[in-house]
Amino acid sequence: MIVVNRVEDIHEALHGVCLTIGNFDGVHMGHAKLLQRTRERAVATGLVSAALTFDPHPRRVLMGNAAPPAITMLEHKLECIEQSGIQVCVVLPFTRELAAREPEDFVREVLVGGLCLKHLVIGYDYAFGKGRRGNFEMLSAMGQKYGFGVERLDPVILNGAVVSSTRIRDMVQAGNVWDVRPLLGRFHQVRGLVVHGQKRGRKLGFPTANVGVRDELVPLSGVYAVWVEVDGILRPGVANIGKNPTFGDFDLSVEAHILDFKGKIYDQPIRVHFVQRIRSEKKFSGPEELITRIREDIGLARMILAAPDARP
């Protein structure tokens, strides 16, 4: 997949595109439907399949620190879009100036003039631009004027509710990581470099990889059965999210103990796939009680991860 940050970088190579546009936070099953339809339509009409998204997420620019955390960081988002078979992804830098831009100007200059738009696939509730006036009705009218088609897809419904980024975020923040898998099409994951921590786990006999998380969605505090991905290899593990109340810590951390693993992975990127929440975070009377409970957690994690449908 070709990734560009300016339409000028791809304009001369395009003879016409079938495009879908959105934030694609989480690249969930609703987004997968848009991407699949875009690719199928492009193949049927001889067009280039393309997706247009924004970075940072518009809410981060408009709401600052009050914005909800991202379900997928840009790197992960692009991987998921590429896996859908899309040929080109345009990642436009999102600014307040872009948010205030008249949608008619954006369509004329960026979509038609820059990307040679021939067909546009959008979600059931998509709108953009100043006052969110860039909706299906406006896009359809402009399509008639500039010669591109517009297709609006129905939402994906699962268990009686629309699959959305907001629903997924709420579920992960509530610790319902097992139930979120059908919505995402995969287990929720957190990525980051392994950073140096307090090394308490090693002293207790259970060394942990401390994940340096960024501005991304972290599940509810507690203990989880996880798969830890290192160098593309999945290994079973147990992860703790919390503040280590037994030792009086105050900073939230994500620590993963990789089962039957003795390698050194400091400063290496890892991915933690959250399969199921085992229990809430708890303050223990001391190291001995904590060690006993960790052993129980590991036993439960092995049972959970041994199930065929617990594989990523």
From TrEMBL:
<keyword id="KW-0288">FMN</keyword>
<dbReference type="GO" id="GO:0008531">
    <property type="term" value="F:riboflavin kinase activity"/>
</dbReference>
<keyword id="KW-0418">Kinase</keyword>
<comment type="pathway">
    <text>Cofactor biosynthesis; FAD biosynthesis; FAD from FMN: step 1/1.</text>
</comment>
<dbReference type="GO" id="GO:0003919">
    <property type="term" value="F:FMN adenylyltransferase activity"/>
</dbReference>
<dbReference type="InterPro" id="IPR002606">
    <property type="entry name" value="Riboflavin_kinase_bac"/>
</dbReference>
<keyword id="KW-0511">Multifunctional enzyme</keyword>
<keyword id="KW-0274">FAD</keyword>
<keyword id="KW-0808">Transferase</keyword>
<comment type="pathway">
    <text>Cofactor biosynthesis; FMN biosynthesis; FMN from riboflavin (ATP route): step 1/1.</text>
</comment>
<protein>
    <recommendedName>
        <fullName>Riboflavin biosynthesis protein</fullName>
        <ecNumber>2.7.1.26</ecNumber>
        <ecNumber>2.7.7.2</ecNumber>
    </recommendedName>
</protein>
<dbReference type="GO" id="GO:0005524">
    <property type="term" value="F:ATP binding"/>
</dbReference>
<dbReference type="GO" id="GO:0009231">
    <property type="term" value="P:riboflavin biosynthetic process"/>
</dbReference>
<keyword id="KW-0067">ATP-binding</keyword>
<dbReference type="Pfam" id="PF06574">
    <property type="entry name" value="FAD_syn"/>
</dbReference>
<dbReference type="InterPro" id="IPR015865">
    <property type="entry name" value="Riboflavin_kinase_bac/euk"/>
</dbReference>
<dbReference type="InterPro" id="IPR015864">
    <property type="entry name" value="FAD_synthase"/>
</dbReference>
<dbReference type="InterPro" id="IPR014729">
    <property type="entry name" value="Rossmann-like_a/b/a_fold"/>
</dbReference>
<dbReference type="InterPro" id="IPR023468">
    <property type="entry name" value="Riboflavin_kinase"/>
</dbReference>
<comment type="function">
    <text>Catalyzes the phosphorylation of riboflavin to FMN followed by the adenylation of FMN to FAD.</text>
</comment>
<dbReference type="InterPro" id="IPR023465">
    <property type="entry name" value="Riboflavin_kinase_dom_sf"/>
</dbReference>
<keyword id="KW-0548">Nucleotidyltransferase</keyword>
<keyword id="KW-0285">Flavoprotein</keyword>
<dbReference type="GO" id="GO:0009398">
    <property type="term" value="P:FMN biosynthetic process"/>
</dbReference>
<dbReference type="Pfam" id="PF01687">
    <property type="entry name" value="Flavokinase"/>
</dbReference>
<feature type="domain" description="Riboflavin kinase">
    <location>
        <begin position="183"/>
        <end position="306"/>
    </location>
</feature>
<comment type="similarity">
    <text>Belongs to the ribF family.</text>
</comment>
<dbReference type="GO" id="GO:0006747">
    <property type="term" value="P:FAD biosynthetic process"/>
</dbReference>
<keyword id="KW-0547">Nucleotide-binding</keyword>
